[in-house]
Amino acid sequence: MKLNYFYFKSLLYGLLHKYEASHYKKSLHFYPYRIGIELTNKCNLDCIHCIKKTKYKTGMMGFDEFKKVFNEFPYALSVSLNGVGEPLLHPRFFDIIKYIKHTRPYVITTIFSNGVLINESMAHEIIKSGLSKIHISLDATNASSHKKIRGTDKFDKVLNNIKTLVELKRKLHSKTPLIGINFILMKENEGELIEFIKLAKELGVDYICEIDSYLFNFGDWKLKSAGSLSSYKKELEVGKQELKKSGIKCMYYPELSKTYDWNKPFICDRFWKEIRVTFNGNVTPGCCIPFAEQYSYGNILESSFKGIWNSEKFIRNRESARKGTAPILICKECIEMMKKYLTL
Questions:
Q1: For 14, phi and psi rounded to 5 degrees?
Q2: Distances (CA, A) of 176 to 5, 89, 93, 128
Q3: Residue 175 pLDDT greater than 90, yes or no
Q4: Helix (H) or strand (E) segment spanning residue 211
Q5: How far is CA 75 from CA 34, 81, 203, 230, 272, in A?
Q6: Fewer Cβ neighbours under 10 Å: the N or C end of the chain?
Q7: In angstroms, rounded to a whole number, what is the distance separating the alpha carbons of residues 231 and 237?
């Protein structure tokens, strides 16, 4: 009964937050109901497109630190345990999932993984833990392109690990975790999208989590893997047809033909809707760009989120964003990038 009360109160809280956020209020009473907590930014691979190739210090969030951070958001309905690292490297990963499920079993827990560590033993642990969703970044359909992207020859291992996880889940008659795979278009995998969609169907995963295009070329993302817009459009068009043919779900598929009238102010809603906490407690906007090395609103291990959420810094940034003005440098670079791809 008590859990039901908190669940429905969390649903109400989430609706009220959505209402506040949709009206772009500069000060918010309600917290985001979707949060990101980075357990670690350490990784066991060296991917060519990773932001960590720049200046990021690495570390892990302690178990007690995680509990403190998680409990700052008593009405959260969804938590992603990712940042720029591999969450399954965390030595207390399953203790963390157990803690979430014990205290608030209705919270949706999600991770993105490179899939390398998911042997049969870990697959059992993942299924038993109650983790809600696991999204495995594959980004290739053959060993050659996978090695170019990941920096190591692990394609067959990851493929077998996905098959093991899917088969064990079926054998154990478990509804969770939902298993998805990801594909980011870049130069190194150009022309592989159709085969990727076929592979997803063959593997028997629940869905494709996302198919996206590597367009970033600003901030810490100034890397060399981005393909041309014309090549992306061509491949995405044929990929859309293959998705229909295969019948497999794709949760996110980019529409590069979408345009925006830049005579109107562009309001990025990240300043109202989402936040991410880094492994060492820094609160950053919920997008994939400005981690603590780029921008931090404060440290949640040193002060309460309540003070951070409506701090002078956050309010000032919301006011700028509401006017269509980039609050910080990284936002300005992001807007310039979007103008390149979303222009009438």
A1: -65, -40
A2: 24, 21, 17, 9
A3: yes
A4: strand 207-213
A5: 9, 17, 36, 43, 16
A6: N
A7: 10
Residue 110, classed as helix, strand or coil, is strand
Tokens of 260: 């925006």
Q: How many residues does the chain have?
A: 344
pLDDT of residue 229: 73
What strands, in cross-sheet order, belong to the sheet with 34-37? Answer: 250-252, 207-213, 178-185, 133-137, 108-113, 78-80, 34-37, 275-277, 283-285
pLDDT at res. 309: 95
Per-residue pLDDT band for 294 (boundaries 50, 70, 90) equals: low
Residues 299, 119: Cα–Cα separation, whole Å: 36
Residue 206's pLDDT band (cuts 50, 70, 90): very high
Q: Which helix (DSSP H) or strand (DSSP E) does residue 252 occupy?
A: strand 250-252
**Whose structure tokens read 């809707």?**
273
Give the residue-averaged pLDDT of 264-270: 80
Specify the 3-state DSSP secondary structure of 37.
strand
Could you give the C-alpha distances from 122 to 153, 186, 198, in angstroms and in order? 21, 30, 26
Q: Report the alpha-carbon distance of residue 140 to residue 144 in Å, rounded.
A: 9
The strand pair at 275-277 and 283-285 is best described as antiparallel
Reply yes or no on whether the pLDDT at 344 is more than 50: no
